[in-house]
Amino acid sequence: MQVMFDAAPASDPSPLQQSDAFARALNALGTPPLRLEDGTLALHRKIGPLPVHMITRPGAETPETLRDLARGMKVRGPVLLAPERPMPLNRIGALPLVSPSTIARLDVTPDETTLFAGLHQKWRNRLRHAQSQKLRVTRQNMPDDPGHWMLQADLVQRHQRGYRSWPLALTLAYGRANPGQAKLFTAFWGREPVAALLILRHGTGATYHIGHTRASGRLTSAHTLLLWSAIRWARSKGVQQLELGTFDTEENAGLARFKLGTGALPHRLGGTWLWWPPLTSLLRPLARLDRRLMQSG
């Protein structure tokens, strides 16, 4: 289950949703975020007359610090809190809404030989298979084209699988506002584009944003080759950490194996909570009931 905002990690480097690059994209789209005193970004929307704000993956280390961030906005209305890691936000009267997800994070600072050695054996086998298929890989800045085949295929896939991601306009705004930081990798089999993936760079971090593989791309293991190409590119540009998005070993074990097969490590996020001071005393008992759901095992 997801709510109205999408979350994507705080540590060093900063997660995409707390980066200057993300703020520039929102500004370009005409929906500027709030920037709090410590630099944390907060999104704001309206549901009817009610303003709703969200703080996604801030650097706050304690529930009280996160509460103080929310208070610092000096705005009315509920605040959605999505911390970087599980923490007992029931302590500040917040109500859990969405259980924590797990993302895959790959350290790309080692040399290429070490990164290759860190690949799972089956992942290396698929990479070698792809390299034997005479695929041609290109890299370019993401075209400012809402009709691009990968973007349209992703919209269809979202509808079929029932998941949410960024609005298409925001993805395109990111490329316009951050020249050279939205990189499209495409695999061609002959003249046919059989797979593509989009990587968003933000400071010393980068995030796998969108990917799509056609049937012929699956036959040739094209997506494996593209991701390896993206890993090598990220390292060459001084990126320290590449985020590969969420995974679920029960709902989609194949995708989990693909992401973790790169040598990426799992990182559990903190879920999404509702904090609204007028309801704090009312919500506190409910928050205590659900606190186990929001903590890591």
Structure, explained:
Helix 1 packs across helix 6 and helix 4 packs across helix 8 (222-236). The chain has 297 residues and is α+β, with helices and mostly antiparallel strands. It has a 7-stranded mixed sheet, sandwiched between helices. It has helices at residues 20-29, 63-72, 112-117, 121-131, 149-161, 168-177, 215-219, 222-236, 253-260, 280-289, and strands at residues 34-35, 41-47, 50-56, 79-82, 95-98, 102-107, 136-141, 182-189, 192-202, 205-213, 241-247, 265-268, 272-275. It is globular, with a radius of gyration of 20 Å. The chain is built from 10 helices and 13 strands. Mean pLDDT is 89; it is low at 1-11.
Oligomer: single chain
Biggest beta sheet summary = 7 strands, mixed
Element-by-element helix/strand order:
HEEEHEEEHHEHHEEEHHEHEEH
Instruction: Identify the overall geometry.
Output: globular
Radius of gyration: 20 Å
Strand order of the largest sheet: 7-8-9-10-11-6-12
Straight-line N-to-C gap: 19 Å
> What is the structural class?
alpha+beta
Task: Produce the secondary structure layout.
Blueprint (H helix, E strand, L loop, with lengths): L19 H10 L4 E2 L5 E7 L2 E7 L6 H10 L6 E4 L12 E4 L3 E6 L4 H6 L3 H11 L4 E6 L7 H13 L6 H10 L4 E8 L2 E11 L2 E9 L1 H5 L2 H15 L4 E7 L5 H8 L4 E4 L3 E4 L4 H10 L8
